[in-house]
Amino acid sequence: MATVELRFSAQPEHVRTARLVAAAVARRAGVDEAVLDEVRLAVGEACSRAVGLHRSHGITAPVSVALTEDEKTFSIEVGDSVPGPGVDPAESGASEASGGSGAGAARPDSEADGEGEDEMGLAVISGLVDDVEVRSGAGGGVIRMSWPTADATVRP
Q: Could you give the residue ranges of the DSSP H alpha helices within 63-156?
């Protein structure tokens, strides 16, 4: 199992780099050429979503991307450091990650403002990827997406 890990500051200009790296690693892992555009778009949406969440909550921690090649699948996990709904930011350490500014305490207002964009991004990802999982907890959220590789097909 080979894994490539990326961490980048929550700046929109870094999303393009994440898309390019994801497409290159997916190609090397054996993902079908016809699916590479979907990989690029899905990673772009997931990373843009994570960047937006970090910026709207004042979190300075980096966005993380893990690209993993297994025997039969290629998976990507995009993680953010924004505590999930119903989690007290003080308990999760989000205010510490944001430089102690307490910006995490304003979560309910920020959440209402960006909720429509967040839902739209998740809808786009769900339309692009057959195997997608969204998790959220005290430590942040993760979007896990996977695609079959050429090794997953039966060879003669």
A: 89-92, 94-97, 107-128
